[in-house]
Structures are given as structure tokens and as C-alpha cells.
Write a structure and sequence with these properties.
Number of strands: 9
Strand order of the largest sheet: 5-6-7-3-8-9
Shape: globular
Number of helices: 9
Helix content: 25-40%
């Protein structure tokens, strides 16, 4: 689904990524981890076609996201912290707006709300939603156009345990439907619960990639310990 081949990205004299090779399989939940400034955002910008690699190649569903950015982004849903919702619009108005942008029907917007268990919030102002409600609506907005790829950035940050468990259930359900999920999170328990494989970046370089259990076995005993060993001690 996603492939980065010998990718290096420089911004002037600053090198954000160095010789990154990464392959994310269709239908996989893949964790992208690293300290702040490790290169996670740059990687996403390359995948979304918002930046061009200085060296190397990026492919998403066989397409060059820089050359075919519109086509790639139509296959991609994004959930960032805050949900990308307009606070002064109702939930339904928000979804209709994005449905119009993607050229899909009102029915698709309705079905997305139902799938995310948020149809009862339809007439609520987005600015009046709780954090958990907002994240469910944000997921509905992100999937209403039927994307093959979903990017989640800290999807449960600030949520209580019950809301976190519910959101995890929704994410697993999307994976079971064949959606490829790229997850960025600092919550190692969340990463371990959801991800098939994870990549750990440090200073723009991949320092490890594999299943959480394999990383724990080699660098553990916990995924947090592995993360600290691979990043904190490399400072």
C-alpha cells in the first residue's frame, strides 16, 4: 500500500529523513513512532503528497503522491488532534461539507456516522462535543469517502479509558474491513494493542521496524523500554 525507497528529505541545510526504506502492507495497522523531531511528520507529508523527497521514491497504491497528490488524498482519511471539525457547524453540517468536497452522497455521510456510533450527535454543534464524541465524529468525517488508507495522529489523547476502549474497537473494525491504518502515538499500550508492526524513527533514521512482540523480545522487556533504549540512549 505504501512504499518508501531510499528516501531522503532535506529542508535547506536540515536533513529531516535519511535513506528511509519502508513498506506498509494493505490492510495492516502500522505504527510510526519516534520522539518529537524524529521525522514522523515529514514521513506523513511525503505519503500525502504535501512534500517531495529530495532523493528516493514514494509510492501509495502504486502512485507517486507528489505527481498524483489529488488521487492519493482521495484514497486517504486523516484524523488529527482536534478532529478537523468546524466548531460553529453542527456535526451533520460538518459531514455534509466534507462529503461535498469529496463528491460523495449524503447517504455516505449518514452511513459513516452510523458506523462510528455517532448518529445521535447529528444535530449537536461540533464545538459542544466532548473529546470522545469529537474523535468519533472525526473518524466518521475521515471515512465518509471510503478511503483505503487512514492516518491517525494521537487518536485517543486526552480520552478516558472507556472512550479509549470504544475508539480502539472502531479502529479495529475499520482494519477488519481492509483499511490500511497508519498510527502515530506516544501511547505504547495503544500501539501494542492496535499495531501489527511498528517503525521507530530517531533523528530522521529508522532504528527499528517489526512486530511489537519482536521489539520487546530484542530491546524490552516492554515496548516503552524498547522505545527508550532505541531513542533515548541514542541522544
Amino acid at each position: 500500500m505504501i512504499q518508501l525507497i531510499n528516501v531522503t528529505k532535506r529542508y535547506g541545510t536540515v536533513t529531516a529523513l535519511t535513506d528511509l526504506n519502508l513498506k506498509i502492507h494493505e490492510g495492516e495497522t502500522f505504527g510510526l513512532l519516534g520522539p518529537n523531531g524524529a521525522g514522523k511528520t515529514t514521513t506523513l507529508r511525503l505519503v500525502a503528497g504535501l512534500a517531495r523527497p529530495t532523493e528516493g521514491q514514494v509510492r501509495v497504491a502504486g502512485l507517486d503522491p507528489w505527481e498524483r497528490g489529488d488521487a492519493v488524498r482521495r484514497q486517504m482519511g486523516v484524523v488529527l488532534d482536534g478532529g478537523l471539525l468546524y466548531n460553529d457547524l453542527t456535526v451533520w453540517e460538518n459531514l455534509l461539507l466534507f462529503a461535498g468536497l469529496f463528491g460523495v452522497s449524503e447517504r455516505a455521510a449518514h452511513d459513516a456516522l452510523v458506523q462510528m456510533g455517532a448518529s445521535d450527535l447529528k444535530n449537536r454543534l461540533a464545538g459542544k462535543l466532548s473529546k470522545g464524541q469529537r474523535q468519533r465524529v472525526a473518524l466518521a468525517r475521515a471515512i465518509l469517502h471510503g478511503p483505503r488508507l487512514l492516518y491517525l495522529d494521537e487518536p485517543t489523547s486526552g480520552l478516558d479509558p472507556l472512550a479509549t476502549d470504544e475508539l480502539h474497537r472502531l479502529i479495529r473494525n475499520l482494519r477488519s474491513q481492509g483499511v490500511t491504518i497508519l498510527l502515530s502515538s506516544h501511547d505504547m499500550a495503544e500501539v501494542e494493542a492496535l499495531c501489527d508492526r511498528v517503525c521507530i524513527l530517531q533523528r530522521g533514521r529508522m532504528v527499528a521496524c517489526g512486530a511489537p512482540a519482536a521489539l520487546k523480545a530484542e530491546h524490552g522487556p516492554s515496548l516503552t523500554d524498547a522505545f527508550i533504549q532505541l531513542t533515548g540512549r541514542a541522544q
